[in-house]
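Archive maintenance. Older records in this collection stored only the sequence; we are now back-filling the structure field for every entry so that each record is complete. The fields below show one back-filled record exactly as it appears after the update. Entries are processed alphabetically, and Putative TetR family transcriptional regulator is next in the queue.

ARCHIVE ENTRY
Title: Putative TetR family transcriptional regulator
Organism field: Rhodococcus erythropolis
Length field: 208
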Amino acid sequence: MTSASATGGKRLGPEDRREQIIVSAAKVFEEKSFADVSMTELAKAAGVGRPLLNHYFGSKRELYLDVVRRFVFIPEVAVDRIPRSASQEKRIGAVIDRWLDVAWRHRDMWISTVMSDDLRRDPEMDRILQDADDVAARRMMDALEIRPSEGSEAAVHSMIVAYGGLAKAASKQWLVTGALDREQVHLLLVHSLLAIVRDVLPACEADS
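Back-filled structure field:
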């Protein structure tokens, strides 16, 4: 299959081609682990030749890192769709629903990336995951209209990042061990975040 036939006969520009390769690679990595995927397989999935794949990404690891970057960052559109007129509890429920929807839809890759301790041993991967945690915290704060006062910004942000750790651990109990179902995880995460927003953050503001 040629690169043109993979896109319905349309020749793509460099940015569109790069995007198309990342999307097709994400589907492959959802089905197989990094070690079990070859560059030849990735090129075939994207409908391009190995030379073109190497031109855009250089190596399988570089392509995988780009896929992970795309996957672990919460899209801004997910935040924009949360109704601002709703109560705080309903907005929190909507935020958690978005989180769980994404985790379920891409559960195989989510488990192999977001939940993997092994990936943290790769400095570049660890940096990507840390950046994703920071972005997720900022977007959650924006969705819930959390506006820290001067002097408490770093502490409040770090608390929301720490809450993200709870969300990952709870999701693991659902997706990996099966000890919790989705409704139980939703209940835990909604009420935990509600307590943080209503009780913990005001106390943090008062101490700053």
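Update note: Residues 73-207 form one domain. The chain is about 70% helix and 0% strand.
Entry marked complete.
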